[in-house]
């Protein structure tokens, strides 16, 4: 039988960590970058790569970003909805020093009214200079959601372009207890290349710590939408007989750290064979520094008992955050073939703060971990040459403060990401937002 596939630990650490309640309130005057220089490091020398110039709208959102790489300027112009979510993003390019810009690509998105962070439609276009019009690409999707009279999600279908139409490729079906109004079963199906549907995740007997009935994604991402599962049965459907077969049990415990932050430990015990998967997260300080971990246990010696020395896979991530809310270090560790834990990746961010601009980050040096050498080496530097004084908190870009919201990461256009992408990223934890580059 196929086992329940856990979420990638990198995604888990960015999407599932809950915000800490002790986040500092944003200053009345918020200084944001106006002009930034980006440098790369090689052979002991910093070389200038590009210049970032920002313009903001009245709500403090990035309305225009110019990236000058010397031979061309890439411009991104953005508009947002009332919740600060990206509506349109138009990219253009100038090869004459910014005198004229030619259209290049465009993105258009809409969002769910119940879950404003959930994208319902995305369309991408490229500009045809010959036809002087936007041409739709295949980088698009549609989410169609059905809800019952109580507002709970009973079904969701994800469709993508195929042969001129939108073809369903994923679907979710939820059932609810009429008395408690809480979900009791969840089924996630995907369509294969032959057009046949198969079940990827099937959970039954759901018991909740907290739920709003908005099960719009795979189990791995439920916390992101405000749903905390306490327990459930992992099942699958026999494709031949159509019978439901159980092969695992999920149990999750939640606790508050000494810093009033929500921690959790998720344990999945499989019943078709003696094995276990454990996922968890705990905090180190009031700034939100945390460790997340995942490991598998199997009855390697065949004695019918699972012990901690029978780990077949293990990985963990440690994220350190300073008093300004900036991520200063990310490190990952894995179990190697010799059965010992070793560092597998790492990134350090060394900040210089500017007291004259409310301790805004004046400079950040990024260093990457060299696995072979076992040391960190500088790779990139961001220097802010001028600031814009915006009195509106950057939280207006990403939504209002809510200490129960998960940690999230966004790009400069306010789009939510599953993990840090290359370039500049915005982290949000409750009312505190920070900008880092990777």
Summarize the structure.
The protein has 438 residues and is mostly beta strands. The protein is built from 2 helices and 27 strands. It has helices at residues 9-15, 395-398; strands at 30-42, 45-56, 62-68, 73-80, 86-94, 102-111, 119-128, 133-136, 141-147, 153-162, 165-176, 183-191, 197-210, 228-237, 244-256, 262-270, 275-283, 290-298, 311-321, 327-335, 341-354, 360-370, 375-390, 408-410, 416-417, 424-429, 432-437.
Describe the structure.
- Helix content is 3%, strand content 58%.
- The protein is mainly β.
- β26 and β27 form a beta hairpin.
- The longest helix is centred in the first third of the chain and has 7 residues.
Structural class: mainly beta
* Fraction of residues in helix: under 10%
Low-confidence parts lasting 5 or more residues at pLDDT below 50? 1-28, 392-407, 411-416, 429-433
H/I helix tally = 2
Quick one: how many beta strands?
27
Shape: globular
What composes the largest sheet? 22 strands, antiparallel, barrel
Assembly type of the shown chains? single chain
Proportion of beta-strand residues:
over 45%
Residue-averaged pLDDT, rounded? 85
Distance between the termini: 39 Å
Measured on Cα atoms, how large is the radius of gyration? 24 Å
Spell out the helices and strands N to C. Answer: HEEEEEEEEEEEEEEEEEEEEEEEHEEEE
């Amino acid at each position: 039988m196929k086992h329940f596939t856990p979420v990638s630990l990198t995604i888990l650490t960015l999407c599932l960590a809950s915000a800490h309640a002790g986040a500092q309130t944003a200053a009345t005057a918020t200084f944001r970058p106006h002009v930034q220089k980006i440098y790369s490091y090689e052979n002991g020398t910093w070389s200038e790569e590009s210049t970032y110039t920002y313009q903001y709208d009245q709500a403090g959102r990035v309305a225009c970003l110019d990236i000058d790489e010397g031979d061309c300027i890439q411009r991104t112009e953005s508009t947002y909805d009332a919740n600060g979510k990206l509506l349109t993003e138009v990219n253009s390019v100038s090869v004459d020093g910014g005198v004229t810009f030619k259209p290049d690509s465009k993105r258009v998105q809409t969002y769910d009214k119940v879950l404003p962070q959930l994208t319902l439609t995305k369309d991408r276009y490229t500009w045809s200079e010959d036809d002087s019009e936007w041409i739709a690409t295949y980088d698009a999707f549609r989410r169609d959601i059905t809800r019952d009279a109580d507002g709970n999600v009973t079904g969701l279908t994800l469709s993508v372009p195929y042969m001129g139409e939108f073809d369903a490729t994923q679907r979710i079906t939820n059932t609810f207890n009429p008395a408690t109004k809480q979900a009791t079963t969840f089924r996630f199906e995907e369509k294969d290349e032959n057009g046949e549907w198969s079940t990827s995740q099937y959970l039954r007997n759901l018991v909740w710590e907290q739920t709003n009935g908005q099960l719009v994604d795979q189990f791995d991402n439920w916390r992101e939408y405000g749903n905390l599962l306490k327990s459930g049965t992992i099942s699958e459907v026999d494709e031949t007989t159509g019978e439901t077969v159980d092969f695992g049990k999920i149990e999750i415990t939640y606790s508050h750290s000494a810093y009033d932050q929500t921690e959790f430990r998720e344990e999945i015990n499989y019943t078709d064979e003696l094995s276990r998967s454990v996922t968890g997260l705990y905090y180190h300080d009031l700034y939100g520094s945390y460790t997340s971990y995942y490991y598998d246990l199997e009855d390697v010696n065949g004695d019918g008992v699972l012990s901690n020395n029978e780990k077949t896979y293990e990985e963990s991530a440690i994220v350190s955050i300073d008093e300004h809310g900036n991520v200063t270090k990310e490190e990952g560790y894995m179990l190697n073939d010799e059965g010992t834990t070793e560092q597998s990746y790492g990134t350090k961010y060394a900040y210089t703060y500017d007291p004259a601009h409310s301790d805004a980050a004046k400079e950040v040096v990024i260093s990457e971990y060299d696995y072979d050498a076992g040391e960190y080496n500088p790779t990139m530097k961001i220097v802010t040459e001028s600031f814009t004084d915006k009195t509106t908190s950057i939280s207006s870009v990403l939504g209002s403060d809510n200490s129960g919201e998960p940690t999230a990461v966004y790009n400069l256009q306010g789009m939510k990401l599953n993990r840090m992408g290359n370039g500049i990223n915005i982290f949000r934890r409750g009312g505190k937002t920070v900008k880092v580059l990777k």
